[in-house]
Specification:
The complex is a heterodimer of chains A (402) and B (452).
Chain A (H helix, E strand, L loop, with lengths): L6 E6 L8 H4 L10 H13 L4 E4 L26 H8 L7 E7 L5 H14 L5 E5 L4 H4 L18 H26 L6 E4 L4 E3 L9 E2 L4 E2 L14 E5 L3 H10 L2 E4 L4 H18 L7 E10 L3 H15 L9 E4 L1 H11 L6 E6 L4 H16 L12 H5 L15
Parallel strand pairs in A: 1-2, 1-13, 2-3, 3-4, 4-9, 9-10, 10-11, 11-12, 11-13
Antiparallel strand pairs in A: 5-6, 7-8
Helix pairs in contact in A: 2-11, 4-6, 6-7, 7-8, 10-11
Chain B lengths: L5 E5 L20 H13 L4 E4 L7 E2 L2 E2 L10 H8 L7 E7 L5 H14 L4 E6 L4 H4 L12 H17 L7 E4 L4 E3 L6 E5 L4 E5 L11 E5 L3 H10 L2 E4 L4 H13 L12 E6 L1 E3 L3 H15 L2 H12 L25 E2 L8 H15 L3 H9 L4 E3 L1 H13 L5 E4 L9 H13 L12 H5 L15
Parallel strand pairs in B: 1-2, 1-17, 2-5, 5-6, 6-11, 11-12, 12-13, 13-17, 14-16
Antiparallel strand pairs in B: 3-4, 3-15, 7-8, 9-10
The chains are: A alpha/beta (402), B alpha/beta (452).
GO molecular function (chain B): monooxygenase activity; oxidoreductase activity, acting on paired donors, with incorporation or reduction of molecular oxygen
Family (chain B): Belongs to the NtaA/SnaA/DszA monooxygenase family.
Protein name (chain B): FMN-dependent oxidoreductase (Nitrilotriacetate monooxygenase family)
Chain lengths: 402, 452
């Protein structure tokens, strides 16, 4: 049975996903704050015809601890605002989607909506947005507006903690709802430039969103005309049932982290069930599995590199996604096998940048293409087009004004 | 060497300055429009490009104002994108300190400074406006007297965050495995009236250290805030006399903050109309004014003074007989009140209309116009130079009336004359906005990053 081509994305963060990546990376550490470093990475991903890149972010310093800084000096610390990085790269690329991360807990939904809409305008329809909740007190302390309890793994099952996380996701759903309404608050044809009446805009094609929720209310309309995609792509990372439900209710793409093909099948089933539960009416979620990848010319070289990184780190690091170490051909086979679980594609997290990203675009992508699993060229169009998502109708444009 | 002039370019946006009805008027939202204007400014060796901000669509008589250009991108995001298509031009925007948090905005501005290699500028404004607040979590919570207090504390916190990483914090020693020199780069704490925050900033020192701080506002509090904390002041003083008075006043305030007059640049926002002869330029200026003030616009601008629904009035007819409504309610939301005493303004306008025999539209054209420099390129260059040499300003922010080509003529015809007079650069001599403006390195925060 022929399959549609895989969707393939790269997740970019610092010097790579392995905590010791910077020790082996071919880039000067201070380059992590330069535009050229990020521009080169995204150009590499675009060379591989990838659907999109994601850019990680949080409103605190990176840490190996679940809650707050760890005081370590041996890992990359410090990073730039992901939305602005994406905007800086947009004019330098032509096809690839750009999906920055923002917090839903501390940011103003109005600012997020206008920023992502603007990213869509400056990239001619290649913007996405990855909302994430902030449960850490280290982020909360930077805003001084709410208190959160300490985040400790031994408390994760406590009812109070479960309720807190549930609330943060409910708030996140409100944020996404507001952002989406604001994107729709201008009809596509709102600017009329009507000389006889002297009107630049038809106010009947602009809409108050009048959102009132438990945490905030927003009046609208947006200050930014509707973005080229209508709705930029919303993507979210999910590890368990609460975030699956959030994804089903709020997102277009969900990143999941199954350890193997069987688990992938179970997770896809759970995600589809969550879509039914929340009564999803738009297109089904695109489900992409996350893998941390180390690629080399032969498997033993990849494993040696992994051992070397782990050794530099001092221990085998804990990842929230499975780690693949091996050749591009082996990974291509694995992805081909896993996709039968119902996955739409993969978001690969290069262990070391730019090395593992270059291996993805230069060896993995040809290997996937040889297997008939990946495209040979960009088809043109927006990120939604690339992902096979239609351009949504405007929710406010029911009656055509006269 | 004569005093050197600062030039900045404003992207014409939401007001009746922009003549959208002109066949040459392009998109106010397409990225290509911004690229065109920014590249023109850079071709003219301008100091910086400037974006204003709006956070809610304006309303009048309870309905969205529909006569002017409306709809604009988010400034920070757009400036980051423009950093890719320019190399020297400073990139500055207005970002309201009322509906943002210092940690987030300081982080965004430091990011923009990194991504532009030191070209970021921030026009600090605040709002007490509950109307705008309806779009934000925070709402319209701020009383007017707290505005400058919040702005001043906001800037203090931002400076503290920008200074929170030691300049040598990133070691990147692969042999020893030390990425950062110390275990807590970016540690800060601030316990103030407006903000009570602590933790770690995530952005290492940016090329300028502190992005250029710009301030607009003419009140005593605004002038004092500028003297204490700003690098650039936008003024509205378009005449030589009022410009000189403002200039002298603001510069005299610097000493008490231990600053020299060179550390604060004063640049009024100005318009220009060029012609092959002075008469041509005057004729064009009149034409543009009529495009800017349509019959419908004239009535709505009049309503903003009268604070009443005047929709029944003939745009070519006489001014209303009744006096303005001076109650607290406003017919126009999201717009700064331009006239402190509407009743006195109305009386003055009535007298002027009677004296010159003007109807509403012609009167509005007469009294709201502010075309600063009208004439041949030679006359405009001469007047601008005189303005600067006479210490009425350090330079100008030019507000063209057309998007995106409104700066073309100025750059092609006036800039070479300014260069010929030796008052404007022929090549960039610096890479940073601070360098263009002749400002020294960023001031280090007066206080250490961590305070009690």
């Amino acid at each position: 049975m022929p399959h549609p081509p895989l969707h393939l994305a790269a997740a970019l963060d610092g010097a790579g996903w392995h905590p010791a990546a910077w020790r082996l990376a071919g880039t000067a550490p201070e380059a992590l704050w330069s535009a050229s470093y990020w521009a080169n990475l995204v150009a590499e991903a675009e060379r591989g015809l990838l659907d999109f890149v994601t850019i990680e972010d949080s409103l605190d310093l990176q840490s190996s601890r679940p809650d707050g800084p760890d005081g370590r000096t041996d890992q990359v610390r410090g990073r730039l605002d992901a939305v602005l990085l994406a905007a800086r790269i947009a004019p330098l690329t032509r096809h690839i989607g750009l999906i920055p991360t923002t917090s839903t807990t501390h940011t103003e939904p109005f600012h997020v909506s206008t920023a992502i809409a603007t990213l869509d305008h400056v990239s001619s329809g290649r913007a996405g947005w990855r909302p994430r909740i902030s449960a850490r007190r280290s982020e909360t302390g930077h805003f001084g507006r709410r208190d959160l309890p300490e985040l400790r793994p031994d408390l994760f099952a406590e009812p109070a903690y479960v309720e807190l996380v549930g609330d943060l996701f409910t708030e996140a759903a409100d944020v996404v709802e507001v952002v989406r309404r604001l994107w729709d608050s201008w009809q596509d044809d709102a600017v009329i430039r009507d000389l006889p009446s002297g009107r630049f805009v038809d106010r009947d094609r602009l809409h108050y969103i009048d959102f009132r929720g438990r945490w905030f209310s927003v009046k609208g309309p947006s200050i930014v005309p509707r973005p080229p995609q209508g709705q930029p792509v919303v993507a979210t990372l999910a590890h368990s049932s609460v975030p699956y439900a959030f994804a089903a209710a709020s997102a277009d793409v969900v990143f999941v982290t199954p350890p193997d093909a069987d688990a992938a099948e179970a997770i896809v089933t759970e995600v589809r069930a969550a879509e039914d539960t929340v009564g999803r009416i738009c297109e089904p979620l695109k489900v992409l599995a996350d893998l941390v990848v180390l690629l080399d010319e032969d498997a033993s070289a990849a494993w040696r590199r992994r051992d070397r990184l782990d050794g530099l780190h001092g221990a085998e690091p804990v990842f929230d996604a499975p780690v693949f170490a091996g050749t591009a051909d082996e990974l291509a086979d694995l992805l081909g096998h896993w996709r039968r679980a119902g996955l739409d594609g993969f978001r690969l997290r290069p262990a070391v940048l730019p090395d593992d990203l270059a291996a993805i675009s230069r060896t993995l992508v040809p290997a996937l293409r040889d297997r008939g699993l990946f495209r040979a060229a960009y088809p043109g169009g927006t990120l939604r087009d690339l992902l096979g998502l239609t351009r949504p109708a405007n929710r406010y444009a029911v009656g055509t004004p006269t | 060497m004569p005093k050197q002039m600062i030039l900045a370019a404003h992207f014409p946006g939401v007001n009746n300055q922009t003549v959208w009805s002109d066949p040459e008027s392009g998109s106010q939202i397409d990225f290509a429009s911004f690229v065109r204007l920014a590249r023109t400014a850079e071709r003219g060796k301008f100091d910086f490009f400037f974006l204003a901000e709006g956070l809610r669509l304006r309303e009048q008589r309870g309905r969205i104002y529909d006569l002017d250009v409306v709809g604009r991108p988010d400034s920070l995001t757009l400036l980051a994108a423009l950093a890719s298509v320019t190399t020297h031009l400073g990139l500055a925007g207005t970002m309201n300190a009322t509906f943002r948090e210092p940690y987030e905005l300081a982080r965004q501005l430091a990011t923009l400074d990194h991504l532009s290699d030191g070209r970021a500028g921030w026009n600090v404004v605040t709002s007490s406006n509950a109307f705008t607040g309806e779009n934000f979590r925070r709402g319209g919570f701020l009383d007017y007297p707290l505005r400058y207090e919040r702005a001043a504390e906001f800037v203090r916190v931002a400076r503290r965050l920008w200074d929170s990483w030691p300049v040598d914090a990133v070691l990147g020693d692969r042999a020893t495995g030390r990425f950062v020199r110390h275990p807590d780069p970016g540690a800060f704490a601030h316990h103030g009236e407006q903000f009570d925050i602590a933790g770690h900033f995530t952005v290492p020192p940016s090329p300028q250290g502190h992005p250029v701080i710009i301030q607009a506002g003419d009140s005593a509090e605004g002038r004092e805030f500028a003297a204490a904390d700003a690098d650039v002041v936008f003024s509205r003083h378009g005449t030589l006399e009022s410009g000189r008075a403002f200039y002298a006043d603001v510069k005299s305030r610097l000493a008490r903050y231990g600053r020299t007059p060179e550390e604060l640049k004063i640049i009024p926002g100005v318009t220009f109309v060029l012609g092959d002869t002075d008469a041509d330029a005057q004729e064009r200026a009149q034409y543009i004014r009529r495009q800017q003030v349509s019959p419908q616009t004239a009535i709505l601008l009049l309503e903003q003074v009268w604070n009443r629904d005047l929709s029944g009035h003939d745009p070519d007819g006489p001014l209303p007989a009744e006096d303005p409504d001076v109650s607290d309610s406003s017919i126009a939301d999201g717009r700064t009140r331009m006239y402190a005493d509407p009743v006195a303004t109305a009386r003055k306008w009535r007298a002027l209309a009677q004296e010159k025999g003007l109807g509403i539209r012609d009167l509005i054209i007469e009294v709201t116009g502010r075309q600063s420099f009208v004439g041949t390129p030679a006359r405009v260059a001469e007047q601008m130079d005189h303005f600067v040499q006479a210490d009425a300003a350090d330079g100008f922010i030019l507000v063209p009336h057309l998007t995106p080509g409104g700066l073309d003529d100025f750059v092609d015809r006036v800039v070479p004359l300014l260069q010929g007079r030796g008052v404007f650069r022929t090549e960039y001599t610096s890479r940073t906005l601070r360098g263009h403006l002749g400002l020294g390195p960023a001031r280090v925060a007066a206080e250490p990053a961590v305070v009690g």
